[in-house]
Amino acid sequence: MNPTNPQSPIPNPQSAIRNPQSAIVNPQSVAPWRDRLFPNHEWVLMLVLLFECGIFSLSGDNFLTSANAFEVTRLSVEIGLLALALTPVIITGGIDLSVGSMVGLAAVVLGSLWRDAGLPLPLAAAAALLCGLTGGGLNALVIARLNFPPLIVTLGTFSLFRGIAEGLTRGIENYSGFPPEFLFWGQGHVGGVVPTQLFVLIAAIAGCSWWVHRTTAGRSLYAIGHSAEGARYAGIEVARRLTFVYLLSGLASSLAAVIYVAHLGQAKSDAGTGYELKTGCV
Amino acid sequence: MKIGRYKREISAALAYAALLALVGLAAPSFFSAANLRDLALNNAPALIVATGMTMVILAGQIDISVGSQFAVCSVAAGWLAKAGVPVPLLLPCGVVIGAAMGAVNGILVSRLRLPSIIVTLAMLVAWRDALRWTTQGAWLQDLPGNFQWFGLGQTAGQWLIVVIALAVVAGFGWTLYNLGAGRAIYAVGSDAEAARLTGIEPPRVVFGVFVLMGALVGLASLLNAVRFSAVPGNAGLGLELKAVAAAVVGGTAITGGRGTLAGTLIGAALLGTVGTALTFLGVNPFWEKAVQGAIILAALVSDAALDRLWIDDFGLRIADCECQMNPTNRKSASERGG
C-alpha cells in the first residue's frame, strides 16, 4: 500500500520468530506495562468503549445493569467469533470476505439437513461445521496452493457461498421450529444470567490468543504478514500455515452460524449479510 | 499488436460469447430488442462505477465505499430536485457531490498514506449510516414530474443513459491509453517509486483517481435514480463488490498496473447478463450469485492456466521467463495479481 516505504513497523520479527521465549522474556520485559499488555494502542479503544458506556448509562436508566451487559455480549458472540478467526488471516496480510456468506450457507445447511433430510440436530450441526471447513478449504486451496490474492478469491467465494445458500432455499425457505434444547445454545442462560454462547466465545478467544501469541506456529503468522517470501526462506511452511488460517476462518464462520440459528431460532439464506465488513472493522 | 498481451480480455470475451451462444440456442427470445434494452439499462450504472473502479485498481488502490457514495448521491439529487433545482443541473450537482466524497478518500489515502482498503471501509460505513440517520430509512417520494428520465420521456431517456455509459467507457479507455495522465495511472500502479523517479507525482495521481471515482459514482447514481419515480435510501448496496468483480473478471490485476477498460466492459457485461440468462435457460435466478462467484474463481484459475500456454513477444513462455528470473519465487502468481 505504501511502496516508497517498504519497511513495515513490526518490531524485530526475526528474533521473535526464531526464539519466541526470548521475545517474551528479554526485550519486552523492560517495556512499560501498558506497551506489554496493549502493543498496538488497544487502550485507546478501551477508553472509547468506556466513554461510550458512560454516555449510554447517563442517557438511559437500565443500560448500566449486569443483565444488560450480558445481553450485549450475547449479541456480539457471532461477530466476535468471526472477528477472532479473521485476526490470524489479517495478520498474514490476507483477508476473508466470504465469512458472512459462509454464515448464511452453514445456517441453510443446518436447517435443511435437520428439517428436510431428517437428520438429528447434533449431526446437522456437525455437517454445518464440515461445510464451513470445506468452504475454508476452497479458499485455502486457491489462496495458499495456487497463490492467488485473498481479496479476489474470497470476493469470488463471497458470491459463491451466498449464491448456493440462496439457490438451495430458492430465496424463500426459512427453517424454524427448532427444539428448546438447541435454542438453549443461543437464547439460554447459565446460572440464570450468563448467556450460554458466551462460554463458546471465551473458549475460542482463549484458544486463539494462546495459539497466536504463545506458539511458534502462531507467531510465524506475523512473519508471513511481514514478508511471505522472507518467512519461506526462514523455514516457515507458508502454504501450510495459510491453509490452516483459512480453514479456521471457515470453521469459525460455521460455528457462528450454528449459534446464530440457535439465537434467532430460524435459518435463512440471508443470515450474516454484511458480516464480512463489520468483522473487518472489528 | 501483440495478441498475447490481451489474453485475459480475450478469454473473458470468449466466455461471454459462449454464454450468449448457449442462451441463443436454448432461448432465442433472449435477443429480443426489449430484453437487450433492459439489460443495457440495468447494467449501465454498474458499468460506469466499474470504469472508475478499474482506474482505482490500476493505480494500485481500491475503493469499497462506492456503494455508500452511490446512495448519498442518489438521495442528494432527489433532495435537490424537490428543492427546485432545475433538472439539467442535477447531473453536474451529482458529479460534484460524488467528486467531493472521492476527494475525502483521496486525501486520506494519498496525503496521510493510509491503506485505501481501510479508509474506504470506514467511509463505506460512515456514509451509509449517516444517510440512514438523515433519511430515517424513508424513500424520497413526490419528486417533480420531470425528474424521471430527465423530463425527456422514456425512450429518449433510456437511450441517453446507455449512450452516456458507453461514452464514459470509450472516453476513459482512450484517455488511459493515449494521454500522459492515463499512462501515469499505469505507471503508479506498476511501481510508484519508479514512477516518482520519472517525474510523476504518485500522491497526485492517486488523489485524482479517487476524485474521478467519486465523480463517476455521482454520474452513475443519477443515471440510476432517474429510472424510477422515487429514490430509495438504500441504493447501491453491494455495488463495490460488483464493480471490483467486473474489473477482475475483465482481466485487471488487483495489484495494479495491468488491465484495460475493454476488459472491464466485457466483465461487467458477463456478470450483468448471467442472472437474466439463467432465467431464460429455465434455471432458478436465485443461483445467480453462485454462478457469478464461480465465474470469478474460473477467471482466476484460467488466468494461471493461460500464463503457462501463451508465448510472449520474445518467443518464451511467460511462466518460464519468470522462473528463470527468480527460480525460487513461488509467490510470483499472487504478486502479478493472477
Describe this structure in words.
- The complex is a heterodimer of chains A (282) and B (338).
- By secondary structure, chain A is mainly α.
- Chain A has 2 domains: 15-64, no CATH class; 77-281, no CATH class.
- Chain A is 73% helix and 4% strand.
- Chain A contains 14 helices and 4 strands.
- Chain A has helices at 13-18, 20-29, 33-37, 42-59, 66-91, 99-115, 121-145, 150-169, 180-187, 196-214, 216-226, 228-233, 238-264, 275-281; strands spanning 174-176, 189-190, 194-195, 266-268.
- In chain A, the strands form 2 sheets. In chain A, strands 1-4 form a two-stranded antiparallel ribbon. A two-stranded antiparallel sheet of chain A has the order 2-3.
- In chain A, strand 2 and strand 3 form a beta hairpin.
- The longest helix of chain A is centred in the C-terminal third of the chain and has 27 residues, at 238-264.
- Chain A starts with 12 loop residues before the first helix and ends with a helix.
- The model of chain A is unreliable at 1-29 (pLDDT under 50).
- Chain B is mainly α and 338 residues long.
- Chain B has one domain: ABC transporter involved in vitamin B12 uptake, BtuC.
- Chain B contains 14 helices and no strands.
- In chain B, helix 2 (33-58) packs parallel to helix 6 (154-178), helix 3 crosses helix 9 (202-225) and helix 4 packs antiparallel against helix 9.
- The longest helix of chain B is centred in the first third of the chain and has 26 residues, at 33-58.
- The radius of gyration of chain B is 21 Å and the shape is globular.
- In chain B, 47% of the residues are buried.
- The model of chain B is unreliable at 311-338 (pLDDT under 50).
- The chains are: A mainly alpha (282), B mainly alpha (338).
- The interface between A and B is large, with 35 and 45 residues.
